[in-house]
Amino acid sequence: MVACGDGAAGFEEVDDVESIRVPSRPGKAEIDPLLGEHDHLVVSGTDADLAAVVLRLLRKDAISGVSVGFVPSSPDSVVGALWGLPKTPLQALALALRGEVDPVPLIRDDVGGVLVGRGQLRLVRGVAYADEQVALRGPAASIEVTPDPGGPGLAVRVVKGTVFKRPTTLYSRAFQIGCIPTRPVRDDVVFERAVNKWTWYRHTEDLRLVRGAI
């Protein structure tokens, strides 16, 4: 088990679980040495921690060969809610270790990152498309993008910010926006600089997430 930050708390007493502690949002030095030895990883931590591990799988061209279990360290995990993972840590661990692989859409962006839970654009103004559909023309309080298993890959939720307009949800394979400078948020991590354009799109391979019944 790859335990990110404090993600392994409480698991030391579980038999037959090899726990490797790494920093929060681990990088190349911590994850790459594990990839040649294991075809199944269990990540315990935040959604951002999971995204960091998945990014290394992508960079090492290992998405199709490594399955991933996830034990959310917070009950507010978007990944956990999206894919129906148990809220109790020990139940989540049991599923992550011995559950069945159920591939889910893996979302990438145009600056080399990945999105496993929720992406956000806050207080944004611009023109956005979900595939060929116009998602936004003008201002919005927020735009949220999440993986979606039932359609082409992405669910795009546009909140205009007025009580008279309900949020609009579109489904697409890609989302792109040109806008006044804004800082996107990926899995609760704010991007390091403001950008005036952004793209999220479904990767050609799915993430081999463990979420099936044991």
TrEMBL record:
Domain of life according to the entry: Bacteria
Name by which UniProt lists this protein: Uncharacterized protein
